[in-house]
Design brief:
The chain contains six helices and 14 strands. By secondary structure, it is α/β, with parallel strands linked by helices. The protein has a single domain, classed as Ribonuclease Z/Hydroxyacylglutathione hydrolase-like (Metallo-beta-lactamase, Chain A, 4-Layer Sandwich), CATH 3.60.15. It starts with a strand and ends with a strand. Bound molecules: nickel (II) ion and manganese (II) ion (MN). Manganese (II) ion binds next to helix 1. Nickel (II) ion (NI) binds next to loops.
């Protein structure tokens, strides 16, 4: 699995020969100026919830690439009305795609689309297949529901968790989340983009080290293979 970070909660993951893109928010992210949005590949665009810092560039990239948008019923319907290819999911449901399984799991947050349309309930995704298993939590608080993930999904090779505080859990809570989901390799997201979520990187890493876990803070535009 090759993982590329595009800032905020946006990641590209090459999985079983397909390009999965999560929560694209690039053009309006001043930290992601070096990312050329025209060159981001996507076969599927997975959206955790409707907030602008997760969906802002989804329509543009879907139109350029022909990628299918995978999201909850309300968000997928909003994009279907724009003429885009979608797959509807809802909480607890999973679907077997050509690259592997996608399960839509709970997040504790809120969700509204940029024009004020109701965005359904926010979620996260657990993806698995021949290459392994990973979790993108979206925006969420620490929640006991995370304990369900190791009970109902294969063991996680890595997880993408928000660590920026204010709108989501902070690094200390995310370190507890990494215990709940039984995952030792965490990639941080949803930090530094705005004033409210600027964090101390060393303190964040220490919160994980203290629990025997690894927190990876990928520079924007860089990739990692797991
Ligand atoms: Ni949000
Ligand atoms: Mn957000």
């Amino acid at each position: 699995m090759k993982i590329t970070y595009y800032g905020q909660s946006c990641f590209g993951v090459e999985f079983n020969g397909k390009h999965l893109l999560f929560d694209p928010f690039i053009r309006a992210n001043s930290l992601a100026k070096q990312v050329d949005i025209e060159k981001i590949p996507a076969d599927y665009i997975l959206l955790t919830h409707g907030h602008g810092d997760h969906v802002a560039d989804a329509e543009e990239i879907a139109k350029r690439t022909g990628a299918r948008i995978v999201a909850n019923y309300e968000i997928a319907s909003w994009y279907a009305e724009k003429g885009l290819e979608v797959h509807y999911l809802n909480h607890g449901g999973k679907w077997s795609f050509d690259f592997g399984m996608v399960k839509y799991v709970n997040a504790v947050h809120s969700s509204v689309l940029p024009d004020g349309t109701y965005g359904g309930n926010p979620g996260g995704f657990v993806i698995w297949g021949k290459e392994g298993c990973f979790y993108h939590a979206g925006d969420t608080a620490l929640t006991m529901d995370m304990k369900l993930i190791p009970m109902i999904c294969p063991p996680l090779n890595f997880a993408i968790l928000p660590i920026g505080d204010n709108f989501t859990m902070d690094a200390a809570d995310a370190a507890i989340a990494s215990e709940f989901i039984q995952c030792d390799k965490i990639i941080g997201c949803h930090y530094d983009t705005f004033g409210f979520i600027k964090i101390d990187h060393q303190a964040a890493k220490k919160a994980f080290e203290d629990k025997g876990k690894e927190l990876i803070l990928l520079p924007i535009g860089e990739s990692l293979t797991i």
